[in-house]
Each structure stands twice: as structure tokens, then as C-alpha cells.
Amino acid sequence: MSAPRDDEFGFAPDYDSPVPYMQRTRDYYAAIGYTTPYRWAHYTSAPFQPLKKPLAKSRVTIITTAAPYDPAKGDQGPGAAYNGSAKFYQVYDGDTSKQHDLRISHIGYDRKHTSATDSGTWFPLPQLLKASAAGRIGEVSQRFFGAPTNRSHRVTLDTDAPEILARCLADKVDVAVLVPNCPVCHQTTALVARHLEAGGIPTVIMGCAKDIIEHAAAPRFLFSDFPLGNSAGKPHDVASQAQTLELALTLLETASGPQTTMQSPLRWSEDASWKLDYNNVAQLSPEELARRRAEFDKQKEIARGNRAA
């Protein structure tokens, strides 16, 4: 008896599921010569803070892993190659009443399927300001905060997360929306969200790497099944960006306990084959892997120099 045909039952292809970023990353770095597997943060429970007041009366901030544009640090524009010079290593903040040019050239977003031409996909301040003007939230906090993307769990847990909490408390923040971009960014925001919740501030992460966020046991997570770099919606699609933020706000209001994931109903495209590409060693030739190893080593040296400076 033959197996049922997928199209008979409307089955999706097996690859049309959340990208396994943790395994992809392990396999990728092993393939370019780094044989010690990275230890992803893993917890089986999470702190959780219910909203202390309605969102319509709450002060909301954004925590981002994007970096302020610095023209002295090389190409950071749309489609730029990975740029280790643009990385930052200390928590920063910015005035939410002003416009900001934040970019993501310093991290491993999906460069094949995302051109990084619309910061609204990784920095939802315009949508948050609209939500405030409409009365959906009480107000946007005076400052937003930049979280360094550290592979070091200790630095994130002992230095960066406490610093972000202190700044949030100083600004009397009621709620934090965290927006990661790359795989390690997702781990960073999960660890920061856990620290904020333990410190009394409810959080929601808007992200694209489901396995990393859930492995670290984040309190609340809005999952958009989009290429990395689009945690806040589709590029040049204001409606999708507004809907994505609204889903995150709804999750803040409706989650009954920690480790609550809501999946956005939006799809990137009808063709899900983009999920096969990101750091997938099965798709890369030995020559391409060697080229990437050389480029990775070069960027690592640049980043090391910046950190020392």
C-alpha cells in the first residue's frame, strides 16, 4: 500500500517548520573548523511578572540589539557584509523623542533573504509611538536601551542585564519589549528578559529564533516565522509591523504564566524554501566554507581590537 501523497492531505513540506538555529550554528562552526560546540543557555523554568497596571497606563521601553550607525566603522548599509567593527560592548541608551539610525551589520542576520533596508523590522519605535498616540499604551519611556550581543553568558548575566534593569528602574519603566536579530541576539534578549522579570518588570520578546528563546525559557515570546532581522515585521510593510507589535502587546496582556509562546499568523512567503539556507552546511561547498572561515577569523580579530579599545 503506497504512502498517502502530501498534496492529497494538504501537508506542508517537512522543512516548513521553525529553523533549527542552535543545531545549524553548531554544525556550521564545526564545518569551518571550530570543533568545540557552543553551549546555548538552557533553563527549564522562568520568572514571570504579571502586568501591574493596564497597558493603557503603562510606560513601555524597547531593548534592541541593533547598533547606532557610525560612519567611521565601515560599511553598515543595506546588504553590507558582516562588519565586526560596528559591534558594541557596553549597554547604551537613546532618547525616544528623537530619530535614530540603528543598523544590524554587526550581527548574523539572514543576509540572503533580508537586505536590511527598513529599520522598522528590527527597531519598532515608530510603531510604539503610534501605539502611545492611540492610547494603546500609556507612554513610551524616555529612553530605549541597546543590549550588547555577547557570546559570554557571564557578561550578559553579570554585567549587561543588571545594567539594563538599573536603567529601566531609573526611568520607571513598567514594561519592556525586547527585539533580537541574530541567533546569539535571541539568547541575549532571553537572558535579559529573565533578569528584568526577576526584577519586577514584565517583558515580551519579539523574535524569529524559536528554538533559542524556548531553550532559554523566556517569560513571553512572540514568534514570527521570518528570516533573522525581521523580528518586528516585514520590511516596507507598515501593516505587518503594526500587527506584529499589537500581537506582542496582546501577549503581554493575556499570558497566564511563564514560557508562553504566541506565533504570528503572518508568513514570509508562500515558498518556505528560504528556511533551508541560513548557515546550512548541506548547501555550502568546501570552497565556500573555507572562504567563510577566513572571513570569520578576520572579523574576529577586528572585533577583538575594538573590545580592547
- Work out the radius of gyration: 19 Å
SSE pattern: HHEEEEHEEHEHEHEHEH
Count of runs of 4 or more consecutive helical residues:
8
What is the β-strand count? 10
Helix amount: 25-40%
Mean pLDDT: 94
- How does the overall form come out from the CA principal axes? globular
Largest sheet: 8 strands, mixed
Q: Approximately what portion of the residues adopt beta-strand conformation?
A: 5-15%
Class of secondary structure makeup: alpha/beta
Please report the distance between the alpha carbons of the first and last residues: 68 Å
| Spans of at least 5 consecutive residues with low confidence | none
What does this structure look like?
The chain starts with 5 loop residues before the first helix and ends with a helix. It has 309 residues and is α/β, with parallel strands linked by helices. Helix 5 links the parallel strand 7 and strand 8. The longest helix has 23 residues. The model has no long low-confidence stretch (mean pLDDT 94). The strands form two sheets. Strands 1, 3, 5, 6, 7, 8, 9 and 10 form an eight-stranded mixed β-sheet that branches. It is 34% helix and 12% strand.
Short characterization:
It is built from eight helices and ten strands. The protein has helices spanning 6-9, 21-31, 125-133, 153-170, 183-198, 210-215, 238-254, 286-308, and strands at residues 59-64, 67-68, 92-95, 102-103, 139-140, 143-146, 175-179, 203-207, 220-223, 260-263.
